[in-house]
Structure formats: C-alpha cells, structure tokens
Write the structure tokens for this entry.
Amino acid sequence: MYDFNYQKPSSVADAVNAMKAASDGKVLAGGQTLLPTMKQRLASPSDVVDLAGCGDLSGISASGGSVTIGAMCTHAAVAGSSDVKGAIPALAAMAGDIGDPAVRARGTIGGSIANNDPAADYPAACVALGATIKTDRREISADDFFTGLFDTALAEDEIIVSVSFPAASKAAYEKFKQPASRFALVGVFVAQGSGGARVAVTGAGENGVFRVSAMESALSGNFSAGALDGASVSADGLNSDIHAQADYRAHLVGVLAKRAVAAAG
C-alpha cells in the first residue's frame, strides 16, 4: 500500500467533514473492495475515512410497510434480521447467500451498492424492490442511483446513510454463481408490489444492473412462471468473459427469471 491518513469519525457529520477536508479521500465501509485495491496499489487515496465508528449508520427498522437498513449493516445482519425476514424474506435470503461467512461478516449493504460491482446482488434487489437510497444530503431512487459499470449517482464526497425497501407481496432472487467467488454470473430478482411487477438482472449487463420491461409487462397481468414463456433477453449489450458468453447469459436470464417467479409464488 501507499501511505495514507487513517480517520475514524464517530458520526456521519464528522465523516462528511473528513471527506471534504481530504485531497483524495475514500470511504471505508466493509473494505471488501477498497482494501484489496489498495494492496494491489491500484488506488492511493490521501485519506481513508472508516465508517465503522458511525453509530448513526447502523440499525434495521420496519414501519409503514417498508424496512430501512443502515448503510453499515453487514450482509449477515441483514440475513439474520427479523424485521427484514418479516417484511421481505427474499431480501434476507439473498443477503445470506452472498460470498462466504467471512464476507458476510464484513461486507455492508452501503459499501456494496456504492461500489456497484456489475456482479453484485444488492443492486438487483434495490432496483426490483424500488428501494430509496438516502445519503447525507438527499434521497435517490434505485432506478436513478445505478448509472453504469462501477458507477453511481453519488458525488465524490457523498455518503450513503441508509436504504429503504418497500415491502413486496411477492419477491424472490435466483442466481447462477461463479463457484469460487459466489458472485452472480447472472442473478434475477423479481418482485410484485403496489406498482406492479419488476424484474432486475445483475451479473449480465455490460453497464451493470438493468430491468427487463417485457418480463415486467407479462408478469403484471399474470404473476406466474408460465407468463414468461416466450419472453427472452437479447445477447446484445451483455457480458462475455471466460466464465460465460453473452448468449449463454441471455439464456440464463430467462431460466432464472422463471425460477424466481416460481419461488416467489
């Protein structure tokens, strides 16, 4: 690693001030991406602002038909939360299948969506469930938050505070895992809520998470796996790599969408 200043503020306000004062500060949440990147000397921030001491970034609560999760809540905490299990069981199940126990004990929901890895699980859950991301200065809908590969609507010094998910009447997530990392080669999160059906895909798109409008239209009239017969996703704009070609990923989207709908139903 290169030299850097380590800071551990005790509140969001202090963290914001630390980021503003730094010439090239980076926020440290779970550290699952930032620390390996720094070890490989692919990143050299002037300051690392550790959010672990910010008590106002933790906690999970359910009220008014939604569940709100603090940005520093770990995947394990989300998976084990009775509030999450009660409001959106599919979200708890998804969190419990991220990585391995060590990753789930350190990785956080805020860090995951801020990094916006194209194979991460949480972006699909946020988009499919119509989540709202609250930062230190504003609220952003999930549809507007994820803007591209490893890119979000966040400003350089903006910090995620919490994520609110409306409860869904039906929801499920299915993914085809890379065996070593357990990242999604393709993951499909489906949800039926007050606004209709939503289908979000991760792991497949060149620009990260995306919705499948044709499947959403089919499911809005008939939320069943059979409603997706004949529905398909074009291989155009999908990833091709050593793990899977674009046409195979396109096929998996259809297969996993049907499985998710069946599980949700």
The domain at 170-264 is CATH 3.30.390.50 (Enolase-like; domain 1).
